[in-house]
Design brief:
2 domains; cell membrane; globular; Trehalose import ATP-binding protein SugC; alpha+beta; 358 residues; OB fold (Dihydrolipoamide Acetyltransferase, E2P); 4-stranded antiparallel beta sheet; ATP binding; 9 helices; ATP-binding; nucleotide-binding; 6-stranded mixed beta sheet; Rossmann fold
Length: 358
C-alpha cells in the first residue's frame, strides 16, 4: 500500500511539444491517500490510461515526478514499484490451468505452497471460478479469461497499489455488478490503494471512495459521488455525472438574479463582476414543471423510466431535462419551470464560481 504523489506531472507523445495543446496529460499536482480507492473517470481520449500507465511505470512522463510514500519512482520499473495491473482485455497463459494462472504471481515471489493453495482457492471463489480451477485457460470464453486476469491482479496481498484499466469491458452486466462488489470487499478487507480507470459513471461511483474526473488531459475534480453530484466544479463534471446530466444554460448574472433571455431567476447566492462565458447549471432533479410562474418551456416528450419521469423540453432554443417523480401527473398546461434556488450553480468559462450568501 502506498501514498501516491503526482508532482508537476505532465506528458506529451510529441517529442517536441510546443504548447499545452500538445500534451495528452496536462500538468497535475495531486496526492492520493494511502489505502483509498480511486476511480479515474472520463470520456475516451481524456488521458486516463496515460496517467495510469505513468503510475504503473509503463510510461515515463515528459515532465515531473511520481512518488510512492515520498520515494521518487519516476524512473523505476513496474516490478520495482510493486504494483499489480489489470488491463482492458484479458492477459492469460492459455497453456496453463486457471489455478496455475492465479498462482503464477505468488510462485514468482517464492510464496509457500500452502499459502498459494489457500490464496488461489480464495480468489477462485471471489471471481466465481472454483469449478474451473483445473481447466486450461485456452478453451475458456473472453469473459472467463478476464476474470482470471482480475484474479491474478488481486492474488497478491503485498502490493503498493492495484491498478485497473477498464477491466470489466468484456464482462457480462450481471457479473460486472458482482465483481465490483468483490473489489469493494477486497479493498475493505486489505486496504490496498486502488485506482480504477473507466468511462462508465456507474462503475466509478459504486466502486470508489473518491472519483477523479478527467477532461481534455486535466483533472477537473476529485470528490465523493455526493460532491460530484451536488457541486460539479466544471460543467463537464455536471454533464458527465448523472443521467440525464446537468442542464447548462447561458445567462447573465448580477447580484442574486440570473437573467435567461430576459426572464429572471432568483439565486441563493450573490455574484458581482462576472466576466467571460457565464452559465447557469442546475440538475434535472432540481427543476420542476408548473402551470404557474416560472420560465416558459415547450415540452417535447415525457419518458417514463419506472422510478421517475424524464421530461425533455426546450427553453429559449436550448434543450433542458426535468426529472419528476413517478406519481406526478403532467398536464398540457404545465409549460413553465422553476428551479430550486439552493441547487443552482453559476459557471464562468466552464468553472464553478462561488458567490456570497444573498
Amino acid at each position: 500500500m502506498a501514498k501516491i504523489t503526482l508532482d508537476n506531472l505532465a506528458h506529451s507523445y510529441n517529442p517536441s511539444p510546443q504548447s499545452e495543446d500538445d500534451f495528452a496529460l496536462k500538468e497535475l499536482n495531486h496526492v492520493w491517500a494511502d489505502g483509498e480507492a480511486y476511480a479515474l473517470l472520463g470520456s475516451s481520449g481524456c488521458g486516463k490510461s496515460t496517467l495510469l500507465n505513468i503510475i504503473s511505470g509503463l510510461l515515463t512522463p515528459s515532465q515531473g515526478r511520481i512518488l510512492f510514500d515520498d520515494v521518487d519512482v519516476t524512473q523505476a520499473s513496474t516490478a520495482d514499484r510493486n504494483i499489480a495491473q489489470v488491463f482492458q482485455f484479458p492477459v492469460v497463459y492459455d497453456t496453463m490451468t486457471v489455478r496455475d494462472n492465479l498462482a503464477f504471481p505468488l510462485k514468482n515471489r517464492g510464496a509457500s505452497a500452502q499459502y498459494i493453495a489457500q490464496r488461489v482457492q480464495q480468489i477462485g471463489a471471489m471471481i466465481g471460478m472454483e469449478a474451473e480451477l483445473d481447466k486450461r485457460a485456452r478453451g475458456l470464453t473472453a469473459d472467463a479469461k478476464q476474470k482470471i486476469s482480475l484474479g491474478r491482479g488481486m492474488v497478491r496481498e503485498d502490493v503498493n497499489a492495484l491498478l485497473f484499466d477498464e477491466p470489466l469491458t468484456v464482462i457480462d452486466p450481471h457479473m460486472k455488478w458482482e465483481l465490483r462488489t468483490q473489489l469493494k470487499s477486497l479493498h475493505h478487507e486489505f486496504g490496498h490503494t486502488m485506482i480504477y480507470v473507466t468511462h462508465d459513471q456507474t462503475e466509478a461511483l459504486t466502486f470508489a471512495d473518491k472519483v477523479v474526473v478527467m477532461y481534455d488531459g486535466r483533472v477537473v475534480q476529485i470528490g465523493t459521488p455526493e460532491e460530484l453530484f451536488e457541486k460539479p466544479q466544471h460543467t463537464f463534471v455536471g454533464y458527465f455525472i448523472g443521467s440525464p446530466g446537468m442542464n447548462v444554460i447561458p445567462a447573465q448574472v448580477e447580484n442574486n438574479i440570473a437573467t435567461v433571455h430576459g426572464a429572471s431567476v432568483t439565486l441563493s447566492q450573490s455574484y458581482t463582476s462576472l466576466n467571460g462565458k457565464v452559465e447557469l447549471g442546475v440538475r434535472p432533479e432540481f427543476v420542476s414543471l408548473t402551470d404557474g410562474e416560472g420560465l416558459p418551456v415547450k415540452v417535447r416528450r415525457v419518458e417514463d423510466v419506472g422510478r421517475h419521469k424524464i421530461v425533455r423540453a426546450e427553453l429559449f432554443g436550448n434543450d433542458i431535462n426535468i426529472v419528476e417523480s413517478e406519481g406526478t401527473s403532467i398536464s398540457p398546461d404545465m409549460n413553465r419551470i422553476v428551479f430550486d434556488p439552493a441547487k443552482v450553480n453559476i459557471y464562468v468559462n466552464d468553472w464553478l464560481k462561488e458567490g456570497e450568501a444573498a
